[in-house]
Amino acid sequence: MTDPSLSSAPDLTRQLEALGGQLVWRIGKDEVSEQVVVRLGFASATPRFSFLPKLRSANDAELQEAVEAGQVVIEWVD
Q1: Distance CA 67, CA 42 (A)
Q2: 59: β partners
Q3: Could you tell me if 38 and 71 are in contact, meaning their C-beta atoms sit under 8 angstroms apart?
Q4: Which residues, including other chains, have CB under 8 Å from residue 67's CB and lie 6 or more apart?
Q5: Which of 36, 42, 46, 48 has CB atoms 3.0–4.6 Å from 66's, for a disulfide?
Q6: Cα–Cα nearest to 51, from 59, 42, 63, 39
Q7: How far apart are CA 61 and CA 42, in angstroms?
Q8: What values do phi and psi take at 27, rounded to 5?
Q9: What is d(CA 75, CA 40) in angstroms, rounded to the nearest whole number?
Q10: DSSP-assigned letters across all residues of the chain
């Protein structure tokens, strides 16, 4: 007997890939708090990203450390 969730996996993958193509994001460290921030929104929200506080660059080690410590802040941009 086939697991029904497996038969829908290709469809779900296509849907997630289509959604991913409509998203924009910025990842960096907040200049004040030093927290790693992931800003995420639909491409139509791109102009609103410029009104948010700037994020400074974060290197791979800083990002990995924040992820492992559960210290990543995710912000949805409308």
Answers
A1: 23
A2: none
A3: no
A4: 36
A5: 36
A6: 39
A7: 27
A8: -130, 135
A9: 6
A10: ---HHHHTHHHHHHHHHHHHTTEEEEEEEETTT--EEEEEEEGGGHHHHTTSPPEE---HHHHHHHHHHT-EEEEEE-
pLDDT in tens, the chain (78 residues): 455 555 578 888 899 888 888 999 999 999 899 899 999 999 999 999 999 999 999 999 999 999 999 999 999 999
Place of tokens 């409308």: 78
Structure-block tokens of residue 43: 């491409």
Quote the tokens at residue 4: 């029904």
Predicted model pTM: 0.73
Token duo for residue 22: 């409509």
Structure tokens at 36: 């790693």
